[in-house]
Each structure stands twice: as structure tokens, then as C-alpha cells.
Amino acid sequence: LAPPEALRKAITNTNSEIRRRGAENVEFYNMGTTISSLVLLPQGAIVGHVGDSRIYRLRDYALEQLTFDHSLVWEMKRSGQLPSDGSGDAAVPANVITRSLGPHVDVKVDLEGPFEIKAGDCFLLCSDGLNGPVPEVEFGLAMQHLSTEEATQFLLDTANILGGPDNITATVVKIVDEAMATQPG
Fold it and tell me: pTM score, two decimals?
């Protein structure tokens, strides 16, 4: 399989496994989760995701979100039902997601990329427990000035200090070797 299709298959297989485990144990019935995955290839970075976990890329001091949240707020903005400036966000519950792994037999996986990879690029994969309470400006500053381990711990600690109302997951990946950069081709 080509890498994008292999990633899609891995995520759909994960969905099936979550459903199977939910069916086996009444305590886990209809459980669900989100996923954001990053694959670094010679031809670029590929992102696969379902739900409202996110992937960001920091390049040359500019932070860019590479994923689209599968949430009611984001879907309503995309369709023009809410203003894109965020002024109507409070009218819609922020925690309603439109896609997740587990509850349904079929899952629609978004695949993005390939995105060019340059030495110095830094990626953040995080759950909404991080991007909810922590302002995005903090992501870029931490990724820019700290090691990957320190940036990850700083962001997790900051989310917890700010109340961390949800599960908090974060991973920072920094491209330090030119050999990892996108190869012409």
C-alpha cells in the first residue's frame, strides 16, 4: 500500500478494535476517542486524523494548524453558519465532536499532505485537553525555545495549571537533520 492508504487502513483498523473492545465490556460500550497521526516520509509529512485532536507545524516563527477539527463549531464555521472570526462560538457547545474512533462501524479519516519538511520544522501533536486551555501563542514559544522534551512537559504542565478539564496529550517533534527534509523528486 502507498503510505497514505496504509495510514488510513491503520486508523480504520484501530476504529474496529475500539468498537470490538467496547462491545466486549459493558463499561466501555460506545466508547470513543480521537486521533492525530504524523508520518514523516522523504516526499513530505502526511497527517491522518479523526476528531478534534490537532497537529501544528512551526516553521520560521509561524505556527500553522495542519488539521481541521471535526467539531460542531468548526463544521458550522466551514459551512458559513457561524462567523469565522469566532464571535459566535459561545452559542455552540465547544465539546461536541462530529467524528471519532469507536462509536460507528465506518469512520471517515482525513488525510492531509504531503507537507514539505524542512530542517528546523517543529510539529506538535495534541489533544483538545492542551489546545483548549493553553493559548496557541504558547505552543510556538515553547517549540521554538525549548528542547522537544522540555516543550512537551511545559505545555502539559501549563494545561494542568490552567485547569486541564480534559485528558491532556502532547508530543513535540523537531526536524534537526537535513536528511529528514523533503527530497526533490
Answer: 0.89
